[in-house]
Amino acid sequence: MRAFSDRLVEAIRSKGNPCVVGLDPRIELMPDFVKAGRGDLTREAVCGILSDFHEVVLDAVAGLVPAVKPQLAFFEQYGLGGMEAFANTVRVARERGLLVIADGKRNDIASTAEAYAAAFLGDAGFQAHAMTVNPYLGRDSLTPFVEVCKRCRAGMFVLVKNSNAGSKDFQDQRLESTGRPLYEAIARMVDELGRDLVGESGYSSVGAVVGATFPEEGRAIRAIMPQAFILVPGYGAQGGSAQSAAACFDERGLGAVVSSSRGITYSFGDSGISREGYVRSVRENALRMIEDVCGAVRNHSLASP
Amino acid sequence: MRAFSDRLVEAIRSKGNPCVVGLDPRIELMPDFVKAGRGDLTREAVCGILSDFHEVVLDAVAGLVPAVKPQLAFFEQYGLGGMEAFANTVRVARERGLLVIADGKRNDIASTAEAYAAAFLGDAGFQAHAMTVNPYLGRDSLTPFVEVCKRCRAGMFVLVKNSNAGSKDFQDQRLESTGRPLYEAIARMVDELGRDLVGESGYSSVGAVVGATFPEEGRAIRAIMPQAFILVPGYGAQGGSAQSAAACFDERGLGAVVSSSRGITYSFGDSGISREGYVRSVRENALRMIEDVCGAVRNHSLASP
Description:
TIM Barrel, homodimer, alpha/beta
């Protein structure tokens, strides 16, 4: 099997865009047709609603985008029925030829970090292609994920600079040792950890998360880790523009993927919308994002030195 | 219902010790009797092994300690069967009168953080009494957990200084703004966020995680957040002594709980041990830890000014 980064590059090229559809199950925001006739929200009903909803979304976007990003928190909030739907959603996405980035922001120490990596990337676990990882516990908490990525040809995206306003509280703190923000120290570690996992495409399967809401930081981080893939959330509903997101791409117009969740799956107007109407809305939202992001990335790489 | 911190203080007083048994399911380390006759490790078999194993452990320790700490990574690594066993384990622990700290080190932004809090602390979720939370995303990623703790009378433990060697990489970095390590800035935020959740006992339900492997840091952090409860992992198998762990307690000999996992559940010698022999071993291990920790805390509070 090829490296995750190479498969991601290939999928971006074949679909012609670097857009990722986020899957955030929130029953209260879903259209009526997927909820009708389910009765009480038992474990089975929840699993059915979430699984069916995502199957509709995945069918709608499978031909359009290279990857999807299920957000684990929104599955976990529904307990066991939610986690069962997560497993179903990953399976269906894989069957549709989509890459799956499990957004769980996990981390812990030593054997516990190994267990998280096995849980989401290993053959006996949920079998996503990549996952997001929190770096606060330091280098020895990241290396178990790197090892599993190497062994399973999987990918990881380390949180470097998040899209929320509060990311300034700790991530932006300048360190006495360098005079530079904490997130740059983390970006340097991502770059270093990823050197062993650079694929034929020239990109590493050890990537980073950088919010679309911070284009200046995005440019700086891009320069620190030229081989890392950047996962860029915060586009759309969170206020990041395609232009801002484009700052995380390199001069080849590659090296990043931009994700949107609510803007694709929950922007459909009336909750009484038909199944066909909903599918059309998801596809239109995705196509609008693709056009917007591709245009901005083209301008960005044309303007790059 | 009373505040989590008050229930924790009451449980510590009634059991006469501040020890927490960590539940880290690792089938390869379990005694044979719990695995015998299960056949292949299907989802059902995994769920059965993990649930039964923990029921034995919970029955053995319910009369001895105030709380248990299931480690989510080790459940998640077994996929859906593992998560089903997690739900069973929390339920049985509650039935046995034990407080449950879900160790998942979760965090994310805004509505996603809310979803994690609902997942582990809310009535529709897994219903632990408290959970561990990662602070890297900043203040606005912590406040949704604080809100849920307030509403559900639950507790949270924010990672401040972890027990692993690599925790020095970022947590120990001195900040330009203060000349002090990052973990102190986080401890100050924990103290501030917790002021609204101080119970009748004088302790807050917003606590912190500080590894037993760093007693000096423990003392400093204790002083910064006098009302926060500290969850102290790293005792035993990870090399932290009872004396080191005691540094996280206050002059009343309270304000912290010390957890041990492998030292209690997987230190039983021969894998062919009988069920009765295993129960005896778990109780002996727990009693040895209780004596060790209580002695060290007593000496610590006697020596405190």
